[in-house]
Amino acid sequence: MENLLLGLQELADPQVLLFILIGGVVGLLAGAIPGLNDTNILTLFLSFVVFLDPFPAVILMTAVFIACQTAGSIPAILINIPGTPSTAASTLEGYQLTKRGLAGQALGCSFGSSLMGTVLGGLMGLIFAPVLGHYALSFGPPEMFMLALFGMTAVASLTGSSVSRGLLAAILGLLVGTVGLDYFLGVTRCTFGVAELYGGVPQIPLLLGLFGVSELYSLIFKKSIGAGTTTDAPDVKSQFEGFRAAFRYKKAMLISAVIGFIIGVIPGTGATIASFTSYGMARSVSKEPDKFGTGHYEGLVATDTANNASVPGSIVPALTLGIPGSGTTVLFISAFLMHGMQPGPSFFSNYLPESNAIFITVILVGVLASVVGIFMAKYMVKIVSLPTYILGPIIAIFCLLGAYICRNKVNDLFIMMVFSILAIFLKKYNYSLPAFLLGVILGPIIEPNFFRALAISNNDYSIFFTRPICIVLWLMCAATLLMPKLISRRTAKKGVESK
Amino acid sequence: MKKKLPWGEVSFLTVIVLCIAYYFFSVKGYGLKAVLWPYILMAGALLCVLFIAVELVRNASAEAKADQTAAEKKTLGDWFKANSPIFVIIASLLCYALLLKTLGLHLCNFLLSFFLVYYLSKGKWKTALITAVCITLAFYLIFDLSLGLRLPKGKLFKLLKSL
């Protein structure tokens, strides 16, 4: 309780409150733009984050992250284009409701569910994160190596089009992470003689290239993001009706929040899987399963609650273990690393009030985004008609400036461009971009812990196979690698049986 | 009948293998602690490339040789044509990076945004001019005045100032 109050005290600073407000509003606007997801927007925010203290910076990023998730449902419901990939499931029921002339009610229901998702997820984060943080303190180098390896395999197998493509992306990321001076002998590895690479590949140009500039390459082929779509502006009264309707499905809400949070904690899964899983679960436990797919509030409650509850879930492993739960939380780790702080087992014990402040921000922004969303929805939907010839140059200059100002080096711009070109091909051939990024981020954790583990065991490799936590993590690695194959086999078998 | 391979992805994998080979030779001769981890990763990457290659060959659809050659020629030409906007953007970003120190940040911002709006709006120069001025001004206000950053003014500006 004392730590909770200290967390609230952290937020009492007017500057932090201003960041929450700015982050919330920017997140709402950005989330309503299909094609620009939370990762893209937070990557552009890194240009500012460099100049802020670490915790206000992460509070700002949290606010953007949460508000983006809430606003992503607006275009999904109104024009059948998800604002963020994770709100794709909201189109299943939301757009059907819009087609029935219940756009306002659908939006209200979505805002109500998002609010409960973030509040319940935030509370679960406040309760379970310190427990996990305390437990993680007992992790030694072999466990940390295995944990990072598990994070990599989970992301690689669950995000790419195939396990081998996901793994290759992750390994390429790890290889990029080895560029620069090595930890033990001080020799330079694969720097091409470029002095800027001696300290490793700079993270901000890399992130801006992978998620900012590469998004620009796909945007330029469209006239405007929502070209060819029209919708009526929803009124506030009907949204309140929908808001109340969401609370008729308390059971679905609670189950979805728990599913969303748990899936959020698992590295590599994220909000998209959470919302589809809870949609399926809600349908199977519903009293009216036949209504699903025709514009049913219960389905929308399930998707939007889970989607928002997964966000605090994904922050938990990022802070307590240093392993990001989703691609977006990689940026949280980057923000801390930029300020010389390494999230991980000791992080929660050292910064408990600040970490609590992050989860309280989740709850605050969840409430703020839902309330503001109800009143702003009719204006926000107009953003989708913003022409790309306006949006394109803004993104381009933000990326160039962001890459340049972190170290004032022109070579960083070239590094950004190299990674933007790599991102084109990774996206084109369905190689997981989050897995690649995770490889780069986790590289500096995996390699030193690998050698430290060998040092304590006198170069005995069995240390990775004999400790209990390592064995559990090996089993989890195997499960995540085999799961996609087993699921596809089972689906194919079911398909044959039904035929 | 001959199998049709997705040559785009095959080329991508070939480039990856070449990059790995470059990395391998660039660290050859270093102490074991410096190269063990990269070597493990390289072996893993090559194994994955092998798996993907097998997967590609297995999934390749069977097509007549003549049709395949014609389709390939068409695809390559089309590919360059269809992706020309990307090449234009990359070229403009490269120019920005090369001219940054000479022209200074704000002039580069203006020129880049003018060019991009002009190109993407298909020749609306008035819109391009107004948008470029607004964007440049906005970035000046945010980064120069509000954040007070030391941004490159450019050799040209310094030269004009000295005159």
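qc> The first helix of chain B runs from residue 7 to 26.
qc> done
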